[in-house]
Design goal:
The protein is α/β, with parallel strands linked by helices and 330 residues long. It contains 14 helices and eleven strands.
Length: 330
Amino acid sequence: MAKIGTIDLGKFPLLLAPMEDVSDPPFRAICKELGADVVYTEFISSEGLIRDAVKSKVKLDIYEKERPVGIQIFGANLDSMLKTVEIVEQSNPDFIDINYGCPVSKVVCKGAGAGILKDIPLMIKLTEAMVKHTKLPITVKTRLGWDEKSIEIVDVAERLQDAGIKALSIHGRTRNQMYKGVANWKPITEVKNNPRMHIPIFGNGDVDSPERAKSMRDDYGLDGAMIGRAAIGYPWIFREIKYYFETGEHLKLPTIAERVAVAKRHLEMAMDWKGERLGLLETRRHYTNYFKGIPHFKEYRLQLVTADDFNTIEQVFESIINQYSNELIG
């Protein structure tokens, strides 16, 4: 059984990765309902949070139905990160996750996210200080290294564990790879197989099918799988993986009616969270993904992303169901 501190996550938990502009409360709730065991907020800037930036503060919103839920933060300044911990504690997450893996230039150029992979001593210093500054469990998400020449993840993982973290998620790419190429899970296994390690090691990167999740569990021996891009527009992946684990068979693909029902529920939760106007606007980015692969869908997609009231969206949903009936989409 995998645990974060005293939080029991079950056997080989499936974790929804923190994703900017994706992992908001409505999407997390949808994924939770469809089988995700652990969810994370979008990553939150420590500098933005201590400046009381609205965009950062709203990311602190979490709900009881999401638990266990972690709030993920990033930054490279010790004082700012400690102040951020104090602010985050007020939202009462189950744990705090530190992002040492985001490869985006605007984060990296500030020495945060994957940028800190160039300064491992600073990474350890920040982590130790944050662990001592809160009673909440601290976890970390990182990458293999800055580039192929600087992969020292086995040593880094040991030092992070010694600093007091309760779990470690590792994306099987370097910062220089961004999201290109194939994720390399072998170094993650080397971390897991290190006899000094006793905290859960979760694998991330290219878990896009039940077979891949099974391989991460059985062939690589990791403690859980973190799923990111494969869940965008397809939260059913969590349910499908669990079904495959139990039966060795694949679930039937969601019907058009099921896709519409989930998209509609997502929209309703977004409007409850941010109001009708913002809810409508922020859900638009998900429609392309929810209905990806449906033939001749361009007209409906255009209607969904231009409609400016809920009743119109409902009518479009009804038209989609009528048009495609109960057809399965691969």
